[in-house]
Design goal:
The protein has about 270 residues and is of the alpha/beta class. The chain contains 11 helices and 6 strands. Helix 10 crosses helix 11. The longest helix is centred in the C-terminal third of the chain and has 22 residues. The N terminus is likely disordered. Bound molecules: adenosine-5'-triphosphate. The site of adenosine-5'-triphosphate (ATP) has 19 residues, from helix 3, helix 8 and helix 10. Homohexamer. Acts as a processive, ATP-dependent zinc metallopeptidase for both cytoplasmic and membrane proteins. Plays a role in the quality control of integral membrane proteins. In the central section; belongs to the AAA ATPase family.
Length: about 270
Amino acid sequence: SKAKLFDEKTDTRTSFKDVAGLEGAKEEIEEIVEFLKNPDKYTSLGGKIPKGALLVGPPGTGKTLLAKAVAGEAKVPFFSLSGSDFVEMFVGVGASRVRDLFKQAKDKSPAIIFIDEIDAIGRARGKSNFTGSNDERENTLNQLLTEMDGFGTNTNVIVLAATNRADVLDKALMRAGRFDRQIYVDLPDIRERKEIFEVHLRPIKTAETLDLDFLAKQTPGFSGADIANVCNEAALIAARKEKKAVNKQDFLDAVDRIVGGLEKKNKIIT
Ligand code: ATP
């Protein structure tokens, strides 16, 4: 079977409105939207548009969402692949996959390339837990570095990459002209959790005016992905009981269920 290499999504549906909280990260990444929209304005005095930015933060905090929103706001195509695909699917062909990806993005530029879990290919040499051969991972990494260095000045392809382990990345990736900007995407605080609930309650039929401050208070340590999950579970729980709308108790039951899941996950890790 032929694995799908990456998704090119030219749809512009994801916008900054879909990303709750993360004010600092949004502000920083907004600059990249500006570069993509008006490259000539920024290069007119001899400056070079940055080639890449690294989104750093725990799982489920909205890194992928933010990258998609950049493409959506700038109305440019979004090409993505995941570092783990190289471990699972592209054994032996990593470098050529990277080359193909950049070629496609350049053909459609301005464009965004998004590399999720970049640590799977970008670990510092000698610190690999890549299941393929280490030489192969290094070839893939070297190809990525080559592509980033080889951009013409007017290519206008910006590479966003995500990781929750910036500390293990090869320093070569962070050198000037590569991923020289780092944007932190943290777990939401109570106020941000409330905003994330607002976003994910939009499609949900609720029975009463829910107290979002209360829900935010009930979910310390939850990521945006966990909160999206709570909203969805609550809707399913209520539907299973053949209710016409979702109420507060359904949300509390959903929170319990997600907490249970998180505890199990942590048990496996420790
Ligand atoms: P991972 O490191 O696991 O890939 P990630 O940081 O890329 O995670 P996303 O894939 O962007 O996380 O988030 C998963 C889903 O969680 C999103 O599609 C969205 O539904 C929800 N979500 C996460 N963060 C936010 C946020 N700040 N605002 C709104 N929704 C969010």
